[in-house]
Amino acid sequence: MPRRLRLFSAIALVTLAAPLSTIAAADDAATCRSTGQEATAACTRIITSPGATRDQVGDAYINRGQSYYRKKEYERALEDFNKAIPLKPKWVQLAYSNRGNVYYAKGEDQNAIDSYDKAIAIDPNYPAAYTARGLLYEKAGAVGRARTDFNAALGAKSKFEDDAWAHDTARKHLEALKGK
Q1: Which CATH number fits domain 92-180: 1.25.40.10, 3.40.50.450, 3.30.980.10, 1.10.10.60?
Q2: Long-range contact list for 131-134, CB < 8 A, 24+ apart?
Q3: Burial of 164 (0-12, 13-18, 19+ CB in 10 A)
Q4: pLDDT tens digits, residue range 138-176?
Q5: I need a surface site. Which of 23, 74, 123, 153 has the fewest CB within 10 A?
Q6: Secondary structure class of 51 (helix, strand, coil)
Q7: What is the mean pLDDT of residues 103-123?
Q8: What residue spans define the domains of the chain?
Q9: Contact indicator for 82, 60 with CB cutoff of 8 Å
Q10: Mean predicted confidence (pLDDT) in 9-29
Q11: By C-alpha distance, which of 135, 125, 130 is closest to 156?
């Protein structure tokens, strides 16, 4: 093959490969956000990708942590949420709230409350953090604080999928707390 044709072929290959890698990265991002079996692997590819931004890596840690949490691999989930926090990704409040969920599952109630406090400080319109913290206050017998959080949850609205859970749970618990 003549030198000029080889050079053109190399340039064409690089030009074609760039969009393919962008497509692969977009596929990994979508897969990383999913609940499928491939989510953990896709998140890991983003985390280890030299071309990933700080925000992408932070979000991938959050999503991979959620994947570990669903599998009850709490230590791995906690590690990923803790790695996401200093990266300050766009949804850092999720890292704090999900870290609270891990602590809640492990029975470390004060650590959970501290994490929910931080999530709420970042995003006062995040009802799931209010509801989860309210559940812990209710468990501890702090009925007034629980009511306050459940009411705050009902008044808050976020972009996250757990809003319905947060509102339904807050409503049910407020009803159960009537007369207490």
Answers
A1: 1.25.40.10
A2: 131/165, 131/166, 131/167, 131/169, 131/170, 131/173, 132/97, 132/100, 132/101, 132/104, 132/166, 133/100, 134/170, 134/173
A3: exposed
A4: 999 999 999 999 999 999 998 888 889 999 999 999 999
A5: 23
A6: coil
A7: 97
A8: 27-90, 92-180
A9: no
A10: 45
A11: 125
Q: Are the CB atoms for 100 and 119 separated by under 8 Å?
A: yes
Enter the tokens of residue 6.
Answer: 């080889």
Read off the tokens for 173. 């618990």
> Considering only CA atoms, which of 140, 141, 151, 142 is closest in space to residue 174?
151
Which amino acid is located at 43 in the chain?
Answer: C
Rg of the chain in Å (alpha carbons): 21
Residue 108 near residue 136 (C-beta atoms within 8 A): no
pTM above 0.85, yes or no: no
With cut-offs at 50, 70 and 90, classify the pLDDT of residue 26. low
Structural tokens at position 21: 């890698």
